[in-house]
Amino acid sequence: MNRNLLASWVGGMALLGAAGCERAETPENFPQAAADGWVAAYNSGDVEGLALMYTEDSEVLPPDEPIVSGHAAIEEFWRTYNPGQVRLEISEVEARKLGDYWYREGSYSALVQDEGMPRVGKFIELWAKDGSAWLLYRHMWSPNSPPPAQMPDTAPAI
Amino acid sequence: MRAATILFLLMPALAGCAQAPVPEPFPQEVADAWVGRYTANDAAGIAALYTEDAQLLPPDQEIVSGRAAIQEFFARTNPPGSAVIEIATVETHVLGDYAHRQGSFLLKGPGGQTVRAGKFLELWKKVDGQWLIHRDMWSANAPVPAFVTSDEPA
Parallel, antiparallel, or unpaired for β B98-108 and B84-95? Predict the structure, then answer.
């Protein structure tokens, strides 16, 4: 290898290396289509479709219920929740890419059939990539006020 | 050009890509300090373990934003004589300057009986080299029983 060829090879390798590093830092966009798909499935009562939007090792952390783990249990959970009778909207969303995950937080407003006022609350999600698809890995939410029928609660709020 | 020179020229490129972030351990000592301060009913001490713009996302309540409001929250909900808390870390992921923790908690009454069990998700953030809680969301595993308060008619 002559000296000039060697020099350009070294330069080329250095450039390749730098380009590789820059590529890794290119900001990705939150998988909004997947999140929109979740809301669409929820509002149309598509429980099977909803369950497919969670990773195999996903966990749902619902208020006042134990953790729901895995596809089958999550599908059963949403079937019991009967999402077909709810109109859900998401707002005030903030998403952040953390390592191999997407972290997302926001507010929801859920208008349940036969209820005049929407249920309003907040949520936290972690999304993980499964092949080429972004799926929910952890999903937690809670309402901003107690259920209407509940007695006043003076117990610690935690 | 000698081999050593070539290696020297290539090093920045190789090192740049070799900087795959080495995952730091989760700051369990800070999480343990939270439990210690909660047990001591030290609301200011607890609040100091949150970022300035941290948020609590409590069940059946609005989001609590900022250190001052967080201190007020713990002063109100965890006065001396409150239930004892036990916390177990279930899962942690340290992701650069952020970390995720999932855990479970038990609240125990004076006789050691469990009065509430629940789960939580936390987002931690490293600020000026210090790990602090940035988001803190929890809920019970069963509906909270309706308590009859002392100021209600018997």
Answer: antiparallel
ipTM over 0.90: no
Could you tell me the domains of chain B?
24-140 (3.10.450.50)
Q: Is A103 on the interface with B (CB under 8 A)?
A: yes
For chain A, positions 60-79, list CB contacts with chain B under 8 A.
61-67
Shortest CA gap B26–chain A (Å): 15
Q: pLDDT tens digits for A4-51?
A: 665 665 555 555 555 545 455 567 899 999 999 999 999 988 999 999
- Edge-first strand order for the sheet with B84-95 is B64-65, B50-57, B130-140, B114-127, B98-108, B84-95
Domains and their CATH numbers in chain A = 28-143 (3.10.450.50)
Contacts of A57 in chain B (CB under 8 A): none
What contacts B17, CB < 8 A, 6 or more positions away?
A17, A20, A21, A24
- In whole angstroms, give the CA distance from residue B133 to residue B91: 15
H helices within B50-126, ranges in order?
67-77
Could you tell me how far CA A124 lies from the centroid of its own chain?
7
* Closest Cα in chain A to B150: A154
C-alpha span between B135 and B125 (Å, rounded): 9
Cβ A156–B98 below 8 Å, yes or no? no
pTM of the model: 0.81
